Predict the structure.
Amino acid sequence: MIGKMIYTCPGHFQSEERIFPALPVPGASMLSVSEESAGSGCSFGVAITPSSCYELMQMDPEKRAVLLRQIYGREGLGLSIGRLCIGSCDYSPELYSYDDVPFDTALTHFSVKRDEAYVIPMIREILAVNPDLTLFVSPWSPPFWMKTGGSMCGGYMREEYLDCYAEYIVRFIRAYAEYGIRISAVTPQNEPNTQQNGRMPACIWHPETEAKFICLLKEKFEANGLDVKIWMYDHNFSDLSRVQWSLRNCEGLREHCDGIAFHYYHGDLESTKVLRKQFPELELHFTEGGPRLNDHYDSDWCKWGLMAVKALNTGYRSFTGWNLMLNELGGPNIGPFSGICGGFVTFDHRTKELSFSGQYKAFSHIVPYLTPGASLYPVSVRETYRFDMGKYPNGTHAVEGTVIECGAEKTAAVLINPNSHAVQAEIKLGGALWYVELQADSISTLIVS
């Protein structure tokens, strides 16, 4: 057997070294691989927001083609899922819906033509690189006249427009199909628990209203011959109780819903493990979370490595970051978060140079090994691990990771060491014990073939 380790740590991105089977090493943490699989694969991707499309359009076409192959091509990172916006979101250069004529319940003026400027062309360029890319969509707001307050920014959904809004979603999916863009899933509302103080496209949905809409929308899909899944909620881990209450109390919701979508801004991913036991028929999806522009933008690989590994070990079916591309100022942005979020990739308008986030670097340790049919096995530290309480709070924290069985001849172990010092570890793969030195603040991929 041959072993190699690819690692990213401060000063090193994708460095590689040979490793060897070993006898037990005193002082090394023994990493245990679960015998129970956490699932059979997970799709990774990012949101192809209107701002991302606008920034891509500003690039030299030849350089853009190279970048898209690097991100979506089989020879590159190979992202396999993407999130699109239904109309404007906060990361859009402009604010609009697809029917801005008040009370046009017949949707006579419905049109996606405005997306032809830069959104649709960029999506089609991405699909030309990866025609098998799975796309799901989320609205940040219904047309302003379907809500309280009379604005795309803030307000509450009004139940009298549920049927009209379901038809609006159906028309959007059909319209995009005419451009060769197939939509595979939809979340009824991005972050239904907030109106963002009326400062960006947003809308609050009561849980019962969301449930009614999901049932109605699913029936519309079936009536129109659309094979589109519906993922409910699409908001933070912290309000897990809302999801549980809705699924237990809203008639028809479990039958018409296909999955549950989560964001990472509040709460912990581990809390959602209970959903796999309570509602095993529903898929779990991580649908939003991205790097911060001025907060370790290009070096937060441990943060995203840990988040992704937790999702894999919990059985999530997809993991989608936030904006594919933003500029050096973290824009364009029509909401209150200008200069806060960073893109998966940053395009600097001044220098025309690209820079890559820590999230991109973390994905590069995971995504290439998630081949079709791959099996996932959580990694944990055995009971022999001890936390030195005398060093609290600066003691050694446990290494986290997951093992990806890529086929009969290759296994990859993704290991994250979030400590400020190196950690010695051993892990059994392919019948052999392998010794690794996990550098400080590192994400490593151990490959045995």
Remarks:
- The two ends are 6 Å apart (CA to CA).
- The longest helix spans residues 162-178.
- The chain has two domains: 3-39+373-448, 43-369.
- The mean pLDDT is 95.
